[in-house]
Specification:
This protein is α+β, with helices and mostly antiparallel strands. It has two domains: 35 residues; 128 residues, no CATH class. It is built from one helix and twelve strands; from the N terminus they run αββββββββββββ. Strands 3, 4, 5, 6, 7, 8, 10 and 11 form an eight-stranded antiparallel beta sheet that branches. The protein is elongated.
């Protein structure tokens, strides 16, 4: 009977250690997933080539600056990186021309510009698609980088700005 009790206790101990090991692995996987670095990438949609990438954090913002093709006035749109994609947060413009965002929780007039704040709208599909202007300067400002996308290597390409989860810092 003593041998049976010992074997039963050993099986229970092994089961407990196996279960503890599974929980430890699951916890490490969750921590790894939550803390994985993100990259924002500017990709040529035709070739899927990444032309530019930069590590970013959740909640980090970037700008797209351009001249409105109809109104011929400067526009600055501010976007935010989130877990499920890119969100439009603000629009700065001198007028409300065709194709301009006009809905937000707050619109203010500052230095002769309309600033629409708290738009908080997910970009369709979670990625931002841009065709750089061939007539006016067109910029993307990400962190300390000012990408002039109306010049090579971006010029003439359909671009997609997307968030990539980077499992290794060297990606």
């Amino acid at each position: 009977m003593g041998d049976y009790t010992y074997k039963k206790a050993l099986r229970i101990s092994n089961a407990f250690l196996s279960l503890a090991g599974i929980f430890l692995i699951a916890e490490l996987a969750i921590v790894f997933y939550i803390n994985q670095p993100l990259k924002i990438a500017v990709v040529d949609m035709a070739t899927e080539e990444t032309i530019f990438s930069e590590e970013v954090e959740y909640g980090e913002r970037f700008k797209v600056n351009y001249i409105h093709s109809v109104e011929r006035s400067p526009v600055s749109e501010i976007f935010e990186v989130r877990k499920d994609g890119i969100y439009t947060m603000e629009s700065h413009t001198e007028s409300f021309g065709a194709g301009m965002p006009y809905e937000g929780e707050e619109t203010v007039l500052e230095d002769g510009k309309f600033i629409i704040k708290n738009i908080n709208r997910k970009v369709h599909g979670g990625t931002l698609k841009i065709r750089p202007s061939s007539v006016f300067p067109h910029h993307i400002l990400i962190g300390s980088h000012d990408l002039l996308i109306s010049e090579p290597p971006y010029k003439g390409k359909n671009l997609e700005i997307k968030i990539i989860k980077s499992y290794f810092r060297g990606d």
